[in-house]
Amino acid sequence: MGGFTVENLTLRLPETGVTLFQNVSFSLDIDRRNPQRLMVRGPSGAGKTTLLKCLAHLMPHESGSTTLDGKTAKQLGMTNWRARVLYVPQRPPAIPGTPRDFIAKLDHFSAQRRKGLPATDPIELGKSWNLPVELWDKNFSQLSGGEIQRVTLAIAISREPDVLLLDEPTSALDPETCARVEATLAQHTCIWITHSQDQEDRMASAILTLTPGGSVEWTGSTDVSVAR
Ligand SMILES: Nc1ncnc2c1ncn2[C@@H]1O[C@H](COP(=O)(O)OP(=O)(O)OP(=O)(O)O)[C@@H](O)[C@H]1O
């Protein structure tokens, strides 16, 4: 079985007993010729970021399963899973050095590199998003929020993941730059948190809405195979 499949994913926070999401099930084909984008929306605090972190196995869920090409994270190995189902945070934690240093460190860890796929140069990609080349040699601490957002995203795409888990990836961008980034992301399989109705209208193959209380609603599931 190919693709990224999520079955009955449920999380109740042990600290508070609050159910953030219950029985989330869907399946995304991973097809580079026809990439699907599942948009995730819901009020602040509903659990959108937490859902993405559970999909990346960066935090545990309570029940349910996730598989990539029919294999669980345990079968693939956690490092491999997280490289293939790649979470891109809204605000990355403080990273020492420059973006170029960071790329060199990633390249050093072979598990992060996908073999046999066409390499995307993050610096070239950044150019198409209005990021000057010099910026890759500045310290992260000197970059603006929108620059960090694009650098992080360009590096994530350059690792050639199967699924990008995007936490408000364009929230700090002006409309023109946002359009450029969206044009790139349209070519990738994404699960994408947004608070923008316009962006949702432009980009969604399907929409998952998290509601307080943990139930989920689906709309526009024309392309994504959604089990309800
Ligand atoms: N590890 C954790 N332990 C306890 N509570 C947590 C943990 N992680 C998240 N929460 C709580 O879960 C709820 C959902 O948080 P989350 O960041 O997933 O929301 P969100 O929908 O992404 O919100 P926003 O739109 O504001 O980014 C919040 O009330 C948060 O405080």
From TrEMBL:
PROSITE patterns: ABC_TRANSPORTER_1, ABC_TRANSPORTER_2
Alphabetic keyword roster: ATP-binding, Nucleotide-binding
Keyword hit for Nucleotide-binding: yes
Domain (ABC transporter): residue spans on this chain: 4-228
Stored SMART domains: AAA
Record keyword Glycosyltransferase present: no
A UniProt-annotated Pfam family: ABC_tran
InterPro entries: AAA+_ATPase, ABC_transporter-like_ATP-bd, ABC_transporter-like_CS, P-loop_NTPase
MF terms (GO), sorted A to Z: ATP binding; ATP hydrolysis activity
Name of the protein: ABC transporter domain-containing protein
